Amino acid sequence: MNLVYADEQGQLFDHPDWTGLGRGGDIVIELMEDELIPLPEGATLVGLPGTRPIGISPSGKMEMLPGSYQAVGALLPQGYTRLAIPGYVKADRTAVLPLFGYTAVVWKDGGFYVAAEQCDDPERWNPLNCDRGELNVKVEELLAKYPDNRLYKHLSNCALGYECLTASNTFLQRWEGAVPVSYSCNAGCFGCISEQPEDSAFPAPQTRMNFKPTVDELVEIMMEHLKQPQSIISFGQGCEGEPSTQAKIIVEAMKRVRQQTNLGYININTNAGLTDFMRAIVDAGLDLMRVSTISALDDHYNAYYKPRAYTLKNVEKSLRYAVDKGVYTSINYLIFPGVTDREEEMEAMIDFVRRTGLRLIQMRNLNIDPESYLNLIPKAQGEIYGMKQMLQIFREELPDVVIGSYTHVPPAELTRPR
């Protein structure tokens, strides 16, 4: 397993005499053969600016690679869960890495391998399956059809500028599409990708929407997308705040749409902290609900999300209410090697899943600067099991819960009656 590294110009190399390593949190670890898979299609290799690669040298010692080189990580497509972050140290401890989910990568058997496990079918979320030429045509068609719809204009930048696949699906009218609705949020997430304080060390990679859409604008997008039985339209995107803060227009739009069609599924991606608003959205006919969380431990959750006037208990109440009403529920579980696989984290999350009755855990690689995150959250209290064993434990302890990576249409027997 050769160490992979990059020079200052970003050219990639592998070192035949050095063994590549990974990290679980702040602990440098050796990578096992059963933790490695070939670099998936749609993955991207990137240099980690301001870092130095760590490997096992020919002398058998764990050392920094001499020279002006930087560590390399892989950014995985949806469907893959990382098992280790790259092995590196920061040359400048004050520097922060851009908000991406870096995965350990090595060179072996003539190709790049990553420390990851496939948890879902990556086909629908492979960037290579989004034809940019077709997308441009579809964007122009819908912008021309709805020239006054500000949401379509906003989503056109998300699709063409940020290459957001959910926004792209809205124009391609397939699979899961986006209908952002909120410019405000009831949390101050440390790793928010759409809004950061002016003095933040993290530049937000996206720009948050800055207007309140009308019910008509929502309905137009929803009706265009919900033309197939398997279509999903989703409130709650990376370019917006918390969608349930706009519960009034969501409820009205859902009611109007369901008066016209029973096709497809209406989903919300939410922190579920505003329990009363979530109940109203559920009662209006919600089909799917995905709740974002980083932990089922209050101190860890609060340190990252900085919730405003809600707690994890509110989140749990929202999930329980949705389940009782027949909504197919999941969590968007933001995972990080060396943290999610801690003993206390696993125990708390397994209990949380059992109490709420949710059906699907979407394992999503947390996009964050590792050092900043580790400095923010509580220290480990018990054993750290490793990500591969963590996944195995979840499957054994929660046999009726699907371990996946993204939102799915539920099985027919679990579909909410309309």
Automatic annotation (TrEMBL):
GO terms for molecular function: 4 iron, 4 sulfur cluster binding; catalytic activity; metal ion binding. SUPFAM superfamilies: Radical SAM enzymes. InterPro entries: Aldolase_TIM (IPR013785), Organic_radical-activating (IPR034457), rSAM (IPR007197), rSAM_sf (IPR058240). Keywords: 4Fe-4S, Iron, Iron-sulfur, Metal-binding, S-adenosyl-L-methionine. Its cofactor is [4Fe-4S] cluster. Gene3D superfamilies: Aldolase class I. Residues 171-400 form the Radical SAM core domain. This is Radical SAM protein. It comes from Paenibacillus herberti.
